[in-house]
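@channel anyone free to eyeball this complex?
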Amino acid sequence: KQEVTQIPAALSVPEGENLVLNCSFTDSAIYNLQWFRQDPGKGLTSLLLIQSSQREQTSGRLNASLDKSSGRSTLYIAASQPGDSATYLCAVLTGANSKLTFGKGITLSVRP
Amino acid sequence: NAGVTQTPKFQVLKTGQSMTLQCAQDMNHEYMSWYRQDPGMGLRLIHYSVGAGITDQGEVPNGYNVSRSTTEDFPLRLLSAAPSQTSVYFCASSSAWGQPQHFGDGTRLSIL
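replying in thread with the prediction:
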């Protein structure tokens, strides 16, 4: 059974810092990995999707990397801003259906 | 551009009552899913559909029914509500398997 772990559960940083959010998964036979952002009281917004054959994806100040063999992904946020405060979840797609397995998320607070 | 629309946003039920959570998407997506999000548990897949007329069970299907008569709609029915079903329910859709999932804003359900 696939398990996805995100540690730590919460993180507080001052504005302007570059930061890395970690995600690990137990079964390396994944199809892809997605990073999501969730604001309080809202649904999930897809940030980046990395296919299993890819090493990284970039969107603006966000860069996600994937090391499938070691079961790890990182989300790099450059020059963090208070507006980046949210919960970040990673999810892996496994199997011949739309079964996403989610981590519990990292709640990020960026202090002005 | 509505995306994925969930109704109602909030609902309070008494134990034993039944209700239907509505989900509609206007993106002509084939894949639709229902998740529940509980503190400390992350998101868990309840049921999913790969197209009209086709549904299957996810990780936690007990107590819930789904049907998919049209591409646009994927309602989730609680047959006899129990306090353990108190949760936030999210509907998601994607254009095809392996593509980014689009989430609704959720239905916050409390069962007394």
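from a first look: Chain B has no helices and eleven strands.
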